[in-house]
Amino acid sequence: MTHKTAWIGLFWLVVHAVAGQNPSAIWYRQPARNWNEALPVGNGRLGAMVFGRAGDELIQLNESSLWSGGPVNPNPNPGVAKYLPEIREALFREDYAAAAKLTQKMQGLYTEAYQPLGDLLLKQDFSGLPTDYYRDLNIKTATSTTRFKANGVSYTREIFVSAPDQVIVLRLTADKKGTLNVTAATRSPHPVTKTVAGRDELVIRGKAPAHADPNYVNYNPKPVIYGDSAGCKGMRFDWRVKVRSTDGSVSADTAGIRIQTATEAVLLLTAATSFNGFDKCPDREGRDEKQLVDGYLKKALPKSIDAIRKDHIADYQRFFNRVSFSLANASLVTLPMDERLKRYAEGGTDPELESLYYQFGRYLLISSSRPGGPPANLQGLWNPMVRPPWSSNYTTNINAEMNYWPAEMVNLSDLHTPLLTWIGYMAKTGRETTKNFYNARGWTVHHNSDIWGASNPVGDKGKGSPSWANWAMGGAWLSQHLYDHYLFTGDKKYLQDYAYPLMKDAALFYTDWLVEDKQGRLVTAPSTSPENVFVTEQGAKQSVSVATTMDMGLIWDVFSNVIHASSQLGIDPDFRKELSDKKSKLFPLQIGKNGNLQEWYKDWQDEDPQHRHVSHLYVLHPGREISPLTTPKFADAARKTLEIRGDGGTGWSKSWKINFWARLHDGNHAYKLLRELLKLTGMEGTDYAKGGGTYPNLFCAHPPFQIDGNFGGTSGIGEMLLQSHDGLLNLLPARPDVWATGEVKGMKARGGYELDMSWKDGKLTRVAVRSALGGNCRLRVTNALKGDGKTALKTAKGVNLNTFYKLPENRYQTTTPETPANGVWIYDLATEPGKEYVLVGGN
Ligand code: FUC
Q1: Which is the closest atom of ligand 1 to the Cα of 531?
Q2: Closest Cα to residue 346, out of 696, 683, 678, 703?
Q3: Rounded to the nearest whole angstrom, what is the distance from the C-alpha of residue 731 to the centroid of ligand 1?
Q4: Separation between Cα atoms, residue 279 and residue 689, nearest integer Å
Q5: Is the peptide bond preceding residue 704 cis, with omega within 30 degrees of 0?
Q6: In testing the pocket of ligand 1, which one of 114, 399, 612, 711 has its CB within 8 Å of the most ligand atoms?
Q7: How far apart are CA 105 and CA 47, in angstroms?
Q8: CA–CA dist 837, 817 (Å, integer)
C-alpha cells in the first residue's frame, strides 16, 4: 500500500467513523435495493427518493400538487337522500342487513390519486465494483449524501431540496480532476414530451391522468384514463433538469444530458403543475406551469450553490432546531441504520434510535407539509405509483389526522396549516355533500378526501362497503384540528375569522344528523365504527347500526369545542345552549360485560376482536372525554378495551396504541409498543418480512408504507413526555422506566407554553416554561420542584383558571385533575407573556 492509498483509507475511516457517530445521520453501507430503502428528501412541494446507486443512480421524484382528476362533482348520485328515512326505519326495527343495503345506495365517487412525477437516472460507467461505499440522510441539514470509490476515484453526490429556492440541488464531485463522466436521463410514468433547451437543459412536459381508480378497484377495463374531452381534468406538469455549472463539457439530447471530463457538476431540478385550486379545472383554468418553472430557475440559477445550500439549511433549521430530544444510555449509533434496526429488533438498547425516530417524524413533516401546499398525504410527499395504495389520498377515519397529531406539540404549528387550509376546501364541497346526500345543513367529509377536497361517501355508487364508505364523521374529527391549533397558539383572529365558522358549520351538520331513539336519546343512524364488523345476537355479521361510541365521542368533541370557542369569542349564545342541551342527551358511553368500553350501541361481539382500528377509544385519544385524571372508571374500561384488542396491528394501529397507553399514563406499555413499531421489516433475506414495523429507511410499514405510522409514533413519544389536554400540563406523564435520564427542549403545550425538561434517574431536575400568552400554568409532576429564586410556585388549588385549560361539561367526570395523589405534585405558576420561568427539582 502506498502512502497515498493509506491516507485515503484513513480518510474514509474517519469519514465513516464521524458519520457513524452523528446522531442525526441515517446511514448505510450499501445502496437501496428497493424503494423502502431509498432516502426521502423534500421541501413540502418537491420530493425525491434517493437510492444511492453508484453506476446507475435512481432518484424518484414527486411534486405535491400532481394528482389525477379535477374538481369534484358535487352531486354525483342525485336523489339518494330519499333512502335516509328508510334506513332509519330499518335500524329502529333492528333490521341491520336491510339498513346496510340501503346505506350502500347512498354512495358517490371514489377520490382521485396522488401521482409520481418521474425518475432521474444517473449513469456512470466504471470498471469493477465500487468500494468504500457510504450513503446517508442527515436530518439536521436535510441533505442526503452518497460516496463511493471507483476506478481509484472518490465520487460524492449531495442532494437537498431547497424551499427558499424551490429547486432540487444535486452536486456531483470527483476527487481527481476530470474524472466525472455522467449521463442524466429522465423517465416518467405519464405520457410526456421531452425537448432540450440549449445544450444543458431537459424539458419534460406532460399531463397527469384525468382519472385513476383506487388500487383496490379492479372491475374497470381502463382504470387509468388520460385525456378529458371537456378540457378540464388532467393536470399539466413541466419538469426541468438543468446543469447549473460544471468544469466539464456538456451536451444534451432527449436521451439525456452528458457531462464529461468534469470534476464537479451541479444540477438543478424543478417542476410545477397547473394546479390552480381545488375548484378549478387544472387544464382549462390551470396556472401557467411553464412560467412557474421558468421563475424558479431564473431565481436559483444566479445563486452560488453555497448560497442556495446556506439558505436551505437556515430555512430548514428554523423549524427543525425548535426541538431537541436526547436520552442517556448506551446506543447503537455507530452502526448503519439497517444493522441498527436489526439489532434493536433483537432486543438491543438504543435510546438514540428512539429519539431519532421522534425527530425523523419532525423531519418528515417539515419536508412534506409547507404552508401554501396541500397537506401531507398517505405517503407524505413520496410516491412512485400511478395507482398507489389507497390512492395515497387523505383517509379521514384515522390516517389524515394522525399525520398531523404531532404538529402542534413538536413545535411545528405553522406546518399544521396545509391541513387547516384544506379543511376549508373540504367544507366547501362538504356543504354540497350534506345537502345532496342527506338534506342536511352544515358540512362534513366522509372517510376519503383528496386534493380536490372530495367529501362524498365514496364507493362508486353502491360498490363500496358501508363499513368504511358511509362514515359521515370526518367533519367532526377535522374540526378538532381547527380547534387544537387555536388552543396551542391562542390566535383569536384565526379562531374568529377562520376556524370557528368552520367548526360551527360542522357542528350544525351533526345537529341535523342526530335523531332521537325511542328513549329520547340522541343517536346517529346510520352509524359505523370504521371498518369493523359486529356480530348480532342472531350471529349475523353487520357493520351499519346506531350510535357507535366513536360517533358519539366525535360529536361530543365538536360540540364541546364549539361551545368553548363561542364563549371565548362571546358569540352565538343560542347555538351554544342548543349544543349543550344536545350534548347532555347524546347516547351514553357504555361499559360492556367484559369491563371494556363498548364499541357498539349494544354489547355485541366483534367479528375480529383484534381489529386494527380502535375507533371507540377516540374518546381517550385524540379526544379528551376519557382521562385517568377526570373519568378514572372509564379510563379503566379503555384499558380493558386495549387489553382485549391486543398489542398487534399494522403500523399506524400500533402508533395509535402508543398514544392510547401514554394517555393512560402507562409509559412501559407505550414503550413496549414503540419497540414493536420500530421492528425492522421488509428486508430481503431476513426473518423480519412479516407484518408491520419499520422499513430500513425508517418509513413506517402498514405494510405497505404509510407515513401516518411515522407521525403517530412521533406523537406517541410526545404524549409520553408531555400532555396538556385534560386541565393541566402533565410533565413526563408516561415516562418508561428505561428513559430514566433525558432531556427534551422546545415542546409545546396548550395555552402557548413552551417547555424544556431535564430529568435524571426518573426525577425532573430542571424545567423551563416559556409563556407566550400568560395565564396560570398548572403543572403536574412526580417529584417536588421549586422556583429558581425569581419564580414562585404554589400548590394548585381549585379549578384551573386558565381558559385554555377549561374542561368541557362531562357527565362521566368523577374527579378533578388537581385532586392530590400519592407521589404527585401539582403546582400553579402565574405567568406573563414573553417570560421564561425556571424550576428546579431532584434534591
Ligand atoms: C384505512 C385503514 C387501512 C389503511 C387505509 C389507508 O382504510 O383501515 O388499514 O390504512 O385507511
Answers
A1: 8
A2: 678
A3: 33
A4: 43
A5: yes
A6: 399
A7: 39
A8: 23
Question: CA neighbours within 13 Å on the CB side: how many for 14?
Answer: 6
Whether the CB-CB separation of 654 and 588 falls below 8 Å is answered with no
Residue from 60, 35, 34, 56 nearest 46 by CA:
60
**Which residues, in sequence order, are CB contacts of 191 under 8 Å at separation 6+?**
206, 207, 226
Q: If you measure from the C-alpha of residue 217 to the centroid of ligand 1, how many angstroms do you get, rounded to a whole number?
A: 15
Partners of 183 in the β-ladder: 123, 258
Is the CB of residue 531 below 6 angstroms from any atom belonging to ligand 1? yes
Give per-residue pLDDT as tens, 383-414: 999 999 999 999 999 999 999 999 999 999 99
Confidence of residue 691 (pLDDT cuts 50, 70, 90): confident
Q: Is 399 touching ligand 1 by the criterion CB < 6 Å?
A: yes
**DSSP-derived secondary structure for 298-355:** HHHTTS-HHHHHHHHHHHHHHHHTT-EEEE-S---TTS-HHHHHHHHHTT---HHHHH
**C-alpha distances out from residue 365 to 361, 369, 479, 557, Å:** 6, 6, 20, 26
Residue type, 553: G
CB neighbour class for 98 (10 Å; exposed up to 12, middle 13-18, buried from 19): middle
Cell of 759: 430529568
What DSSP designation does 399 have?
H
- Nearest atom within ligand 1 for CA of residue 650: 9
Q: What is the DSSP letter of 497?
A: I
Cβ-contact 323, 722 below 8 angstroms: no
User: How many Cα atoms within 13 Å fall on the side-chain side of residue 539?
Assistant: 0
Only one residue has cell 432518484, namely 59
At 705 the three-state DSSP class reads strand
How many CB atoms sit inside 10 A of residue 529's CB?
Answer: 26
C-alpha grid cell for residue 498? 377562520
Report the nearest atom of ligand 1 relative to the CA of 390: 6
Strands of 256-262's sheet, edge to edge? 39-42, 46-50, 56-63, 118-123, 180-187, 256-262, 249-253
Nearest to 113 by CA among 457, 379, 403, 387: 387
> How many residues are listed for the chain in this entry?
843
In the chain, count of helices (H) and strands (E)?
19, 38
Which tens digits make up the pLDDT trace of 174-204? 999 999 999 999 999 999 999 999 999 999 9
Spacing of C-alpha 526 from chain mean position: 29
Per-state percent for the chain, helix, strand, coil, to nearest 5: 35, 25, 40
653 C-alpha to ligand 1 centroid (Å): 10
Distances from the Cα of 71 to the Cα of 68, 255, 296, 410, 755, angstroms? 10, 35, 27, 34, 43
CA 746-731-785 angle, 5° bins: 100
Cis peptide before 526 (omega within 30 of 0): yes
Q: What is the SS3 assignment for 297?
A: helix
Taking a C-beta distance cutoff of 8 angstroms, is the pair 344, 678 a contact?
yes
- Give the distance (Å) from ligand 1 centre to CA of residue 393: 11
Cα-Cα-Cα-Cα dihedral sign, residues 740, 744, 748, 754: positive
DSSP for residue 737: T
Q: What is the pLDDT of residues 345-379, one digit of tens each?
A: 999 999 999 999 999 999 999 999 999 999 999 99
For the chain, how big is the Rg over CA atoms in Å? 27
Query: Exposure pattern of 325-363 as b/e (b: 16+ CB <10 Å)?
Result: bbbeeebbbebbbbbbbbbbbeebebbbbbbbbbbbbbb
Whole-model pTM: value is 0.96
- Is pLDDT above 70 for 456? yes
Residue 391: per-residue pLDDT: 98
CA–CA distance, 31 with 16 (Å, rounded to integer): 15
Distance between CA 288 and CA 236 in Å, rounded?
9
